[in-house]
Amino acid sequence: MGNEYIIEANHVSKKFKKAYAINDLSISVRKNSVYGLLGPNGAGKSTLLKMITGIVRPTSGEILFDNHPWTRKDLLNIGSLIESPPLYENLTAFENLKVRAALMGTGIDKCNEILQKMDLADTKNKKTSDFSLGMKQRLGIALALLNSPQLLVLDEPTNGLDPFGIEELRTMIRSFAESGISVIISSHILSEVQQVADDIGIIYNGSLLYQDNIDASENLEQLFMEIIRKERAS
C-alpha cells in the first residue's frame, strides 16, 4: 500500500519554544499527482513543507519518502521553491543554473534543456535583477528541477504573479505530474489549487482537518469555509 505514496507524514509535530506550529499531523501524497495544501496564512503550511524538504526537523513523528524513513540523501530526489527563489541577481538565468549544476555535478546540457522547458531560453544575456517576478519564479522552479526530482515542493508559487503568469505556471505544474514528478503546492488561493490539484489537504492551526481527492465541479470554497468555520467554533 505504501508504494503508491511519494511522501507520508505520520503524526508529525513541530514545536517552536512552547507553541506547536504543527500538531500530530498525518498526510499522504500520491506519486505522479499534484497535492494542493490549503490553509489560511499562518496555518502551518510552510512549516510542514520545510519538514518535508529537510529545512527543519520534526519535534516528533516520522516522514517517509518513497516508502522509507526520510534521510538527507532523499534531498537528491526533492526539488523545492520555498519563499523567494535563491538567485544571484548579478548573473543571468543560464549562469544561475550553471552555478547550481556545478554544485550538483550536473551537465550544461541539462541547464539548456530546463531553460527551454521553463520558457527562459531567450534570456541568455539578461541579468536576473532585470527579471519580472514571474520570470524569477520560473527560474526558481528551473533551479528546483535541475536534479530531476521525484518530488517538487512549491510554497505559494503564484504569489505576485499576474493572470498570464498564473496560467503558465498552472500548465507547467500539470505537465510535471504527467512527466512523473509528484508536486506539492501550497496556497491560500482556492481557485488556483482547484484547477491544478488531484488531491487536497486542508490545514489549520497546525492540524490537518481534511484530505481527499478533488474534482473541478466541487465547490472547494464552500467546503473550505465549512471545515474552517466548524473548527473555529469547536
Automatic annotation (TrEMBL):
InterPro entries: AAA+_ATPase, ABC_Gallidermin_ATP-bd, ABC_transporter-like_ATP-bd, ABC_transporter-like_CS, P-loop_NTPase. Residues 7-230 form the ABC transporter domain. PROSITE patterns: ABC_TRANSPORTER_1, ABC_TRANSPORTER_2. Gene3D superfamilies: P-loop containing nucleotide triphosphate hydrolases. Pfam families: ABC_tran. Transmembrane segments: none annotated. Keywords: ATP-binding, Nucleotide-binding, Transport. GO terms for molecular function: ATP binding; ATP hydrolysis activity. It comes from the Bacteria. Belongs to the ABC transporter superfamily. This is ABC-2 type transport system ATP-binding protein. It comes from Murimonas intestini.
